User: Fold these one by one.
Assistant:
Number 1:
Amino acid sequence: MMWIDWNAHRFSGGALALDLANTVIFRQAPERAQDRFSNSVEVERFASAAASFRASEWGSVTFIAPQSQSGHLNLLELREAINRLFRVAVLEEGFKAQHFSDFLQLASTVIGSGKNGDGVILPPFARHRALSLSAGAVLSGLNLLDPSRLSRIKICPNCHWLYLDESRNRSRRWCDMAVCGNRAKAKRHYHRKGAEHGL
Ligand SMILES: [Zn+2]
């Protein structure tokens, strides 16, 4: 059994909501697409890695992975709603009403299922010590609705992941320069060589 290495690259999204959406890889090519959460043990492992890689968004926090099959399915449904909402918003410069509504309904259910009396604070001012991974994704996603943040969401031209470009002049071209930037460079090199040899 090979475990996923939940390393910094897999948290290139820059916000928990986007990192969650990026747990399906090769979304642009359905025949190649792979769901990193097809084994629910990986959700646990993602949740604990997210606490450290998303510390800049959340501070010190523990994300609790769903403990039941229905909780797992709800998280996947939320993940797909987040992906649709933001991916289409980037491509079409605005939310689709249906996607927005789907997200808000799931968000309402997730937040409503929290313990009575729990406070709810959006990052970056979150002071939660522990919250469900779904609640974290919802709050992170709500935070991205702000136009100043929304306009910084991009789609990586190599791997099609969603990521938040927080660079000052919005110049980030890849989800991860070290991975996708280098792959694109290698590809350009290969094509140039190919052209020289009449391929
Ligand atoms: Zn990429």
Note: Strands lie at 24-25, 34-35, 62-64, 130-132, 153-155, 162-164.
Number 2:
Amino acid sequence: MAVSLPSAPPSVRPLSPLDDADLDSLLLIRHFENALLDLFAAGKLHGTVHTCLGQEYIPVALRPFLDEDFVLSNHRGHGHYLAQYEDPHGLLAEIMGREGGVCRGVGGSQHVYRERFLSTGVQGESLSVGCGLALHSKRRGLPHLVVAYIGDGTWGEGAVYEALNMAALWRLPLLVVVENNGIAQSTPTQVQMAGSVADRAAAFGIDHHRLESIDINEIRDVLADPIARVRNEHRPLVVEFATHRLGPHSKGDDTRPADVLEHARRHDWYRLYPQTRPEQFAARDARIRARVESVVQEVEARSPSVWEAGRV
Ligand SMILES: Cc1ncc(C[n+]2csc(CCOP(=O)(O)OP(=O)(O)O)c2C)c(N)n1
């Protein structure tokens, strides 16, 4: 199947300067994901793993909006977790089945639970669960909103529409974040989705924003007011990011042609940001790369989790 390039690619303008904390968060996710692929290649990691390489800026951009809120993640959720909790040890131990995993090694890469964070490998499930949490929050008069991350391919799940209907009807504080990377596993979006995400949100009277930008500061400027309305006025919202998946769907399963991959690489923040602040980037990059290397060494040396060792 021929794959055409996304019709409206994100900006490749120079990125605006980031503070060290945001850059560190981006770099932590990037090096963590690369480390997972390396561990797989070395035969040290088993099961499935979906990296968010290229998409790291989305949860980092949203992070300041989501302090006490529920975050529902999906199969590609390591970045969602690491942006929320700076806990590479806990996540790596979870994925590797070592002591100290966030869920004692029971959940693995796709099913991570911590406080108000919950991920699932079942596409679409997060929206149904998210409606329940958002209804609870609204009924109790709590200030929490619920953010649910889904991919473009997940719009093929009926549960998404049931949830959108309820969210609109009951005016739930639900923020749906669509990471539209133009492909679902090996199926390009344009051969599986009729119409658009915008039209689908409009069918339920739900507000929709599509963001082409990969600039974290720009994204925050655009989304501050709409996200405040989700929280304060209980107006559900769909935010669609036109983004790029740099890596394979899982480990080695990338069927995309070279020009599509090159297009994705051209929009990679990791390639673009050094032009903005080369010295800041070089220093932070070396620091975080070393930090992830030491996390890998430490976690590898741990004993198997109780689950992995069959002790539960
Ligand atoms: C209900 C369900 N059906 C099928 C799968 C298998 N599956 C895992 S990821 C995936 C593609 C998801 O595509 P998309 O939603 O666009 O997210 P992306 O992988 O691009 O981030 C599929 C079909 C699944 N996990 N759950």
Note: The chain has one domain: 20-300.
